[in-house]
Amino acid sequence: MQNSAFKVLEILERAIAPISGEAISNELGVTRSAVWKNIKELRLMGYDIQSSQKEGYRLVHSSSKLLPYEVHKKLHTQVFGRNLRYFEHTPSTNSIGKQLCSEGDLKKLHGTVIIAEEQTGGVGRMGRAWISPSGGIWITVILKPQVPIDHIFMITMAGSVAVARAIRKEFEIGALIKWPNDIFIGKKKIGGLLLEMAAEADTVHYCLLGIGIDVNNPVKDFSADLQRDITSISAEIGHEIDRASFLARILKEFENRYQLVESGEYDAITQEWKSLSATLENRVQIRTLRNSFEGEAIDIDEFGALIVRKDNGKLERVIAGDCYQQ
Ligand code: BTN
Questions:
Q1: Pocket residues for ligand 1 (CB within 6 Å)?
Q2: Position 326 pLDDT exceeds 80
Q3: Mean pLDDT confidence for 37-50
Q4: Ligand 1, atom 15, residue with closest C-alpha
């Protein structure tokens, strides 16, 4: 159904004045009742379309949903997001990614982006729940990487840099990256990334880069505890934003940096990551599965590991764990 509805939408978008159902039906070679059905479908998708018997239809406002049609209009990538899968509700876009990868041709799936308006079982790092109400950006990018397994974390780093850059370019707010993959504005988290992969020996079959960003979802809907630690784009700039443009920007920034990762230009990524880091040169407390210690975060290496100088002067290389800073 949707294709024909979007043909009607294209006509409404082009029209400089209200347009009659008859004119639309003539242009598309369909009946007037088909046009009426399409108008109803578009309204259900969130498009504000006025109709008057005398003048016809007028598009008052586009949908604020993150519909593939809206994202594609703004997209400047070669591969990422050309194939979009959209869900109103789903437990987790990463789970959908796993399902698609287990059934489909990975080469064809490379660059596919799964979008959820709302996730009912969103997952964060360390298996934590990730609250994902409507208004945020909850996506997973499917990748079939040509990247050696020991450098796979570079993909998350490229993603974090892309998100921070996209926020800076679109909204002129100083987003920073907290190791390993949190996006912060000041002392508050605005987004996070989660890389999952399927690998065997040293072959990576596929990766799923989940990206979650609080955008237009009201922070006041979070629990009091979370409200203290979390912000959103709309809370920072004082109004709701066009998520489709923002997502298109993220995908463009990510695609550019992903190409650097695939061509082995890891230094370009680590340098940019460092320039956006909220962690380096700070006192940190590290908790890994095995131990917990404090020190100063002094560097990251080309594998994305955090280098911490402990109080006894010894350097510790942290590959995975939680990093707390004041
Ligand atoms: C973190 O813990 O900071 C990472 C959060 C990643 C959340 C995103 S939202 C889209 C994708 N689907 C999920 O279930 N998780 C990731």
A1: 92-94, 119, 122-125, 128, 130, 132, 138-140, 182, 192-194, 210-212
A2: no
A3: 97
A4: 123
pTM, rounded to two decimals: 0.95
CA distance 307 to 299: 5
Q: Residue for token digits 């909204």?
A: 171
Residue 93 Cα: closest atom of ligand 1: 12
Question: What is the band of 307 on the pLDDT scale with cuts at 50, 70, 90?
Answer: very high
Long-range CB pairs of 254-260 (<8 Å, 24+ gap) are 254/80, 254/141, 254/158, 254/159, 254/162, 254/163, 255/77, 255/78, 255/79, 255/80, 255/111, 256/162, 257/158, 257/159, 257/161, 257/162, 258/80, 258/143, 258/155, 258/158, 260/158
Residue with tokens 């008057």: 52
Mutational test site, ligand 1, from 89, 94, 226, max ligand atoms within 8 Å of CB? 94
- pLDDT tens-digit profile of 216-264? 999 999 999 999 999 999 999 999 999 999 999 999 999 999 999 999 9
Give the distance (Å) from ligand 1 centre to CA of residue 63: 25
CB of 193 closer than 8 Å to CB of 161: no
Give the type of residue at 25.
Answer: S
Question: Which residues contact residue 115 at a Cβ distance below 8 angstroms, ignoring those fewer than 6 apart?
Answer: 66, 68, 71, 84, 85, 86, 87, 93, 138, 139, 247
Question: What phi-psi label fits residue 196: left (phi over 0), alpha (psi between -120 and 50 degrees) or beta?
Answer: beta
- Whether residue 287 has pLDDT greater than 90: yes
**Which residues touch 188 (CB under 8 Å, ≥6 apart)?**
229, 230, 231
Q: Give residue 213 CA to ligand 1 midpoint distance, Å.
A: 9
